[in-house]
Protein backbone atom coordinates (compact mmCIF):
# COMPACT_ATOMS: atom_id res chain seq x y z
CA UNK A 1 0.00 0.00 0.00
CA UNK A 2 1.41 3.38 -0.96
CA UNK A 3 1.17 6.33 1.35
CA UNK A 4 -0.81 9.29 0.12
CA UNK A 5 1.06 12.53 0.18
CA UNK A 6 -0.83 15.78 0.31
CA UNK A 7 0.79 18.56 -1.67
CA UNK A 8 1.17 21.94 -0.05
CA UNK A 9 -1.52 24.35 -1.22
CA UNK A 10 -0.44 26.78 -3.91
CA UNK A 11 -0.13 30.29 -2.52
CA UNK A 12 -1.46 33.15 -4.64
CA UNK A 13 1.40 35.25 -5.97
CA UNK A 14 0.15 38.26 -4.00
CA UNK A 15 0.77 36.32 -0.76
CA UNK A 16 4.46 36.10 -1.67
CA UNK A 17 4.70 39.80 -2.56
CA UNK A 18 2.59 40.91 0.40
CA UNK A 19 3.11 38.30 3.12
CA UNK A 20 0.66 38.12 5.99
CA UNK A 21 2.79 35.69 8.03
CA UNK A 22 5.83 33.48 7.97
CA UNK A 23 4.06 30.93 5.76
CA UNK A 24 3.87 33.56 3.00
CA UNK A 25 7.57 34.46 2.98
CA UNK A 26 9.56 33.26 -0.02
CA UNK A 27 12.46 32.11 2.15
CA UNK A 28 10.15 29.97 4.28
CA UNK A 29 8.47 28.41 1.24
CA UNK A 30 11.87 27.61 -0.25
CA UNK A 31 12.99 26.11 3.07
CA UNK A 32 9.93 23.82 3.10
CA UNK A 33 10.63 22.76 -0.48
CA UNK A 34 14.29 22.08 0.34
CA UNK A 35 13.32 20.16 3.48
CA UNK A 36 10.72 18.02 1.72
CA UNK A 37 12.95 17.20 -1.26
CA UNK A 38 15.87 16.74 1.11
CA UNK A 39 14.03 14.03 3.03
CA UNK A 40 13.64 12.06 -0.20
CA UNK A 41 17.31 12.42 -1.15
CA UNK A 42 18.61 11.79 2.38
CA UNK A 43 16.56 8.60 2.61
CA UNK A 44 17.91 7.39 -0.74
CA UNK A 45 21.47 8.23 0.24
CA UNK A 46 21.23 6.38 3.55
CA UNK A 47 18.94 3.45 2.71
CA UNK A 48 19.97 2.61 -0.85
CA UNK A 49 23.61 3.68 -0.84
CA UNK A 50 24.78 3.94 2.79
CA UNK A 51 26.24 7.44 2.52
CA UNK A 52 25.17 10.87 3.71
CA UNK A 53 24.08 13.68 1.40
CA UNK A 54 27.31 15.52 2.25
CA UNK A 55 29.40 12.56 1.16
CA UNK A 56 27.25 12.26 -1.98
CA UNK A 57 27.98 15.92 -2.76
CA UNK A 58 31.71 15.32 -2.32
CA UNK A 59 31.60 12.28 -4.62
CA UNK A 60 29.53 14.04 -7.27
CA UNK A 61 31.70 17.15 -7.18
CA UNK A 62 34.87 15.11 -7.36
CA UNK A 63 33.58 13.05 -10.28
CA UNK A 64 33.34 16.28 -12.30
CA UNK A 65 36.84 17.47 -11.34
CA UNK A 66 39.11 14.60 -10.30
CA UNK A 67 42.57 15.40 -9.11
CA UNK A 68 41.73 18.68 -7.41
CA UNK A 69 42.95 19.73 -3.99
CA UNK A 70 40.87 19.45 -0.83
CA UNK A 71 40.58 23.23 -0.79
CA UNK A 72 39.30 23.34 -4.39
CA UNK A 73 36.89 20.49 -3.67
CA UNK A 74 35.60 22.36 -0.63
CA UNK A 75 34.98 25.46 -2.73
CA UNK A 76 33.29 23.59 -5.57
CA UNK A 77 31.08 21.56 -3.19
CA UNK A 78 30.25 24.75 -1.26
CA UNK A 79 31.22 23.17 2.05
CA UNK A 80 33.68 24.48 4.60
CA UNK A 81 37.13 22.96 4.62
CA UNK A 82 36.59 21.08 7.91
CA UNK A 83 33.40 19.40 6.65
CA UNK A 84 35.14 18.52 3.40
CA UNK A 85 38.22 17.08 5.14
CA UNK A 86 36.08 14.93 7.46
CA UNK A 87 33.99 13.63 4.55
CA UNK A 88 37.14 12.88 2.53
CA UNK A 89 38.60 10.96 5.46
CA UNK A 90 35.47 8.84 5.80
CA UNK A 91 35.19 8.24 2.05
CA UNK A 92 38.87 7.29 1.87
CA UNK A 93 38.51 4.79 4.76
CA UNK A 94 35.48 3.31 2.96
CA UNK A 95 37.53 2.95 -0.23
CA UNK A 96 35.62 5.45 -2.40
CA UNK A 97 38.48 7.89 -2.94
CA UNK A 98 42.12 8.41 -2.19
CA UNK A 99 44.52 11.28 -1.65
CA UNK A 100 47.55 11.50 -3.87
CA UNK A 101 50.37 13.17 -1.97
CA UNK A 102 52.14 16.13 -3.51
CA UNK A 103 55.83 15.57 -2.72
CA UNK A 104 56.57 19.31 -2.95
CA UNK A 105 53.76 20.46 -0.64
CA UNK A 106 51.52 18.19 1.45
CA UNK A 107 48.83 20.90 1.61
CA UNK A 108 48.24 20.43 -2.11
CA UNK A 109 47.53 16.72 -2.24
CA UNK A 110 45.09 15.72 -4.92
CA UNK A 111 41.86 13.81 -4.33
CA UNK A 112 40.69 11.17 -6.82
CA UNK A 113 37.88 8.63 -6.93
CA UNK A 114 38.67 4.95 -6.81
CA UNK A 115 36.87 2.55 -9.13
CA UNK A 116 34.54 1.76 -6.22
CA UNK A 117 33.87 5.49 -5.83
CA UNK A 118 33.18 5.96 -9.55
CA UNK A 119 30.76 3.02 -9.52
CA UNK A 120 28.92 4.38 -6.48
CA UNK A 121 28.75 7.88 -7.93
CA UNK A 122 27.42 6.57 -11.25
CA UNK A 123 24.76 4.45 -9.51
CA UNK A 124 23.69 7.29 -7.25
CA UNK A 125 23.50 9.80 -10.09
CA UNK A 126 21.36 7.44 -12.20
CA UNK A 127 18.99 6.89 -9.26
CA UNK A 128 18.78 10.60 -8.45
CA UNK A 129 17.96 11.36 -12.10
CA UNK A 130 14.95 9.03 -11.72
CA UNK A 131 13.91 10.81 -8.52
CA UNK A 132 14.44 14.21 -10.13
CA UNK A 133 12.07 13.17 -12.92
CA UNK A 134 9.51 11.99 -10.36
CA UNK A 135 9.73 15.28 -8.44
CA UNK A 136 8.98 17.21 -11.63
CA UNK A 137 6.29 14.87 -12.96
CA UNK A 138 3.42 17.17 -11.96
CA UNK A 139 4.81 20.03 -14.02
CA UNK A 140 4.61 20.68 -17.75
CA UNK A 141 7.80 21.32 -19.73
CA UNK A 142 6.82 24.99 -19.87
CA UNK A 143 6.42 25.10 -16.07
CA UNK A 144 9.82 23.44 -15.60
CA UNK A 145 11.37 26.05 -17.89
CA UNK A 146 9.72 28.85 -15.90
CA UNK A 147 10.94 27.26 -12.67
CA UNK A 148 14.53 27.21 -14.00
CA UNK A 149 14.26 30.89 -14.94
CA UNK A 150 12.74 31.80 -11.57
CA UNK A 151 15.46 29.93 -9.68
CA UNK A 152 18.14 31.71 -11.70
CA UNK A 153 16.60 35.12 -11.06
CA UNK A 154 16.19 34.45 -7.34
CA UNK A 155 19.78 33.22 -6.95
CA UNK A 156 21.16 36.21 -8.85
CA UNK A 157 19.10 38.64 -6.79
CA UNK A 158 20.13 36.95 -3.52
CA UNK A 159 23.78 37.09 -4.58
CA UNK A 160 23.44 40.79 -5.35
CA UNK A 161 21.73 41.48 -2.03
CA UNK A 162 24.41 39.57 -0.14
CA UNK A 163 27.14 41.53 -1.91
CA UNK A 164 25.61 44.93 -1.25
CA UNK A 165 24.44 47.11 1.57
CA UNK A 166 21.00 47.40 -0.04
CA UNK A 167 19.41 45.20 2.61
CA UNK A 168 20.16 47.86 5.23
CA UNK A 169 18.70 50.58 2.98
CA UNK A 170 15.31 48.86 2.99
CA UNK A 171 14.73 48.99 6.77
CA UNK A 172 12.28 51.84 6.26
CA UNK A 173 10.03 49.69 4.10
CA UNK A 174 10.91 51.64 0.95
CA UNK A 175 11.31 49.62 -2.20
CA UNK A 176 14.88 48.97 -3.21
CA UNK A 177 15.91 48.27 -6.77
CA UNK A 178 18.69 45.76 -7.18
CA UNK A 179 20.63 46.13 -10.41
Number of strands: 3
Which geometry do the CA atoms define?
globular
Task: Record the strand order, biggest sheet.
Answer: 1-3-2
Largest sheet: 3 strands, antiparallel
Q: Could you tell me the radius of gyration in angstroms?
A: 20 Å
In CATH, the topology of the domain at 54-163 is named: Arc Repressor Mutant, subunit A
Number of helices: 8
Mean pLDDT score, rounded? Answer: 87
N-C termini distance: 52 Å
Unreliable runs, pLDDT <50, ≥5 residues? Answer: none
**So, CATH architecture of the domain at 54-163?**
Orthogonal Bundle
> What is the succession of H and E elements?
HHHEHHEEHHH
Helix content: 55-70%
Q: What would you call the structural class? A: mainly alpha
Strand content: 5-15%
CATH homologous superfamily classification of the domain at 54-163: Winged helix-like DNA-binding domain superfamily/Winged helix DNA-binding domain
CATH class of the domain at 54-163: Mainly Alpha
Amino acid sequence: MTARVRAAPVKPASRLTQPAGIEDLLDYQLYLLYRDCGYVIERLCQVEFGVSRRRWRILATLSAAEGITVSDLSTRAELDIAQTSRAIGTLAREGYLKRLANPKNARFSQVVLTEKGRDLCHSMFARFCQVNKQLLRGMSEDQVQHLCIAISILRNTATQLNASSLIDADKTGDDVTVL
